[in-house]
Predict the 3D structure of the following.
Amino acid sequence: MFRPIPVLTGLCLVATALPAQAKDKPLDGPPPAVFQAVLDCKAQSDPAARLACYDKAVSAMDAARAAKDLVVTDRAAVREARRGLFGLSLPSLKLFGGGDNDDDEVKEIESKLAGIRMASDGFPVFILEDGARWKQTDGRNTFPKAGQKIKIRKAALGSYMASIEGQPGVRVTRQAN
């Protein structure tokens, strides 16, 4: 089961470690030097020299990964992280891709309600299976129950709408866990 807390903790660590000028640096720029060294080994024409180059470069890459100076992930992990962060306001980092042609943007999520609690203003807070909390901010009474299906989608002007068991939607906001 996906746990958003470790992902959020990791993102906070990454965000604080990034230099200030990196916020405008495009992700599609040159690769990190430790990765570029592996790519440069292809140019070696002598097989023994190429192998020695790869051995040295891969060892450096492995050391960088172990020291957490290089992070290696795949598209599925990025999608899962984006899904877990859906609805949270985060700084504009290009860590998870993005841009005009972003096919992996999460526009809605579906889950089940793991629990419900009432906020002090009388609106329910929906607790999803992955631990995410969404608070109803306006609309009609929903009378949700644990185990019901919930669909949350992006709406106009940065807002979100939640529909429980196919009922008409109510406006919600993501709460920090």
About this structure: Helices lie at 4-17, 33-40, 47-66, 75-84. The first strand starts at residue 108 and ends at 118. DSSP finds four helices and six strands in the chain.
